[in-house]
Specification:
This protein has helices spanning about 5-35, 45-65, 70-95. The protein has about 110 residues and is mostly helical.
C-alpha cells in the first residue's frame, strides 16, 4: 500500500542536497576566513578606541574635512561601510526569516 507521499518527500529531500552541500561549504569557508583574519568579538578595552574613531570620522564628515582624504582612506571607509551594510542586511534577513519583504497576513 503506497500513498505516493514517500516519493514526493524523497524528491524534496534530494532537491535540498545541493543547498545543504553549499551551506556546509560556506560554513567551512567562514571558519577558515575567521581564523585567517583573526576575528573575534571586541574586548571591553577596545570600545573606547572604536568610539573615539567613530566620532572622529563623524566630525570630519560634518566639517567637510573628508574632502582631503586620500585614496587609501576612501577605500578603507568604503569597505567598512559595505561591511556594516552587509551585516545590517543579513540581520534583517534573519529577522524577517525571508530574503525579500515581510510576510503579511491578509
Amino acid at each position: 500500500y503506497s500513498t505516493g507521499t514517500t516519493e514526493k518527500k524523497g524528491s524534496f529531500v534530494d532537491s535540498l542536497r545541493p543547498v545543504i552541500h553549499y551551506l556546509k561549504v560556506g560554513r567551512e569557508f567562514t571558519k577558515e576566513w575567521w581564523k585567517r583574519e583573526k576575528l573575534g568579538p571586541p574586548s571591553l578595552d577596545a570600545w573606547p578606541e572604536a568610539q573615539k574613531t567613530f566620532y572622529q570620522v563623524l566630525s570630519e564628515i560634518r566639517s567637510g574635512a573628508f574632502t582631503t582624504w586620500g585614496r587609501k582612506e576612501v577605500v578603507r571607509g568604503s569597505i567598512m561601510a559595505g561591511e556594516a551594510a552587509g551585516f545590517f542586511l543579513v540581520g534583517e534577513m534573519i529577522g524577517r526569516r525571508s530574503l525579500i519583504g515581510y510576510k503579511l497576513d491578509q
